[in-house]
Design brief:
monooxygenase activity, heme binding, Cytochrome p450, 11% strand, 385 residues, Cytochrome P450, iron
Length: 385
Amino acid sequence: MVLEYPFTPPTAVDPPSEWQELRATCPVAHVRTASGGEALLLTRYDDVRTTITDRRFVRNTPAGGGTMGGFLADDAAHLRWRRLLTRSFTARRMTALEPGITRIAHELTDEMIKSGSPADLRTMLGFPLPVYVICDLLGVPATDRERFAHWSDRFLNLTRFPAEEVQQSGRELWDYMRAHVRGKRSAPGDDLLSELVTVVDSEDGRLSEEELIFTGQALLVAGHETTANMIGKMLAMLLARRERWEQLLADPNLVPTAVEEVLRFDANLGFGTHRLVTEQVEIAGTVVEPGTTVLSSMPSANRDERVFTEPDEMDLTRSPNPHLTFGAGYHACLGQSLARVELRTVLSVLLDRLPTLALAVPVDELRRREGLLVGGLEEVPVSWS
């Protein structure tokens, strides 16, 4: 039987019932995607982790230059790029950004409070904060923040905008980053991109202009849209049950583990990770032939009963918490340290500034953003007194 995918969840923040059923009875399921193609859907933790870390599963992404950065389709080139970037994109460097992120969070919270209750937290805080942070990281002038937000919103959306508009945004962003990289070559600053322009590794050499342009583009798109949506989802999940928010108010030291649990608990992560099988492999007793497309459901894996105790309960003290939201192995998200700092900072600021914060609508009235490669909510209406 071929199932229609993606599944329809009961609410914007809850998981579809199919995940638990498939984990129990059909961990390798045949599905038909929204584009009409067929694939195998994996829902168990160990199987999903294998597709992320096993090099027999490669990114199912078309090669090409320009805005796609075709060099990343080549596994060796991709690893070289990651090695060079990892030298500068460290957890220590991301933590050093925390004072600036805190300042931005307070400024945006000031504006939200000034606008009055109720307000859309996604628009007022979740959406602008990450793009402001990425612009600071890349040395992009504050005057260009709105352009970056515009490009990012279109670049990761599959259905909201016409294809030509999406492609045009990609071209504009690529052209902007080319000029920006060249500017950093001639007049470097103290930002990450300036450091990457000058870094030379004895084994891997120097990042090319195309790699630098792609790096700036990738940091914007991945670092903005995913975190922007995660901020809204985090608050929606925590405010959906009042006792969760009250627990954090009573013990703000729980913020780090609460953020990890929110990342694990998120049932709205997007369409799943696409991988192409390069040689015959067996998954959960099913033989998979080369050329097969495999979809890995990370949010389902994050609720696997074989790994997590009471996985459908949000435990803000859960530790350890080996969720797969940021991937694993050599495909682990390079920006995860930055995302964690942003989420922890925003949550701490809101707990401090708006302890009476509450959802302004019932949870079942929240709406998913449609067409995004990453999951999100259309609005996160909140109120306070």
